[in-house]
Amino acid sequence: MSIDTATAARVAKLARIRVDDDALPALAEEFGAILGFIEQLQEVDVEGVEPMVSVTPMRLPRRADEVTSGGMADTILSNAPDAREGFFAVPKVVE
């Protein structure tokens, strides 16, 4: 697929990337190569192929989904510069 420099400039603007005018032809060529590769991938027959998460067929270890209080409030608050009554104390910012 052929991408012109105007399209490359528009894509760069949408991506908030500053591209010099002299670099636009090279960028347009790169975009064209990327789209060509995507077209090649679309030609691959994937009928009957299961989606994979990894190249090795193993499940991730899972832990029990249990609701807990965390039991670490004292440990967490020990790092705070100022803690009162089990909460972080912060300066008042709204009058």
Automatic annotation (TrEMBL):
Output one GO BP term: translation
Function, as annotated, reads: Allows the formation of correctly charged Asn-tRNA(Asn) or Gln-tRNA(Gln) through the transamidation of misacylated Asp-tRNA(Asn) or Glu-tRNA(Gln) in organisms which lack either or both of asparaginyl-tRNA or glutaminyl-tRNA synthetases. The reaction takes place in the presence of glutamine and ATP through an activated phospho-Asp-tRNA(Asn) or phospho-Glu-tRNA(Gln).
Q: At the top level of its lineage, which domain of life is listed?
A: Bacteria
Q: What is this protein called?
A: Aspartyl/glutamyl-tRNA(Asn/Gln) amidotransferase subunit C
Q: What keywords does the record list, in alphabetical order?
A: ATP-binding, Ligase, Nucleotide-binding, Protein biosynthesis, Transferase
Q: Which family, according to UniProt? A: Belongs to the GatC family.
InterPro entries, A to Z? Asp/Glu-ADT_sf_sub_c, GatC
Q: Does the keyword Hydrolase apply?
A: no
Enzymatic reactions: L-glutamyl-tRNA(Gln) + L-glutamine + ATP + H2O = L-glutaminyl-tRNA(Gln) + L-glutamate + ADP + phosphate + H(+); L-aspartyl-tRNA(Asn) + L-glutamine + ATP + H2O = L-asparaginyl-tRNA(Asn) + L-glutamate + ADP + phosphate + 2 H(+)
- Which E.C. number(s) belong to this protein? 6.3.5.-
Write down the top EC class of this protein: ligase
* Pfam families listed in its UniProt record: GatC (PF02686)
The species this protein was found in: Roseivivax marinus
NCBIfam families under this entry?
A: gatC
Q: Name one GO molecular function term.
A: glutaminyl-tRNA synthase (glutamine-hydrolyzing) activity
| UniProt keyword Ligase, yes or no | yes
Gene3D superfamilies, per the entry = Glu-tRNAGln amidotransferase C subunit, N-terminal domain (1.10.20.60)
Q: What does the subunit comment say?
A: Heterotrimer of A, B and C subunits.
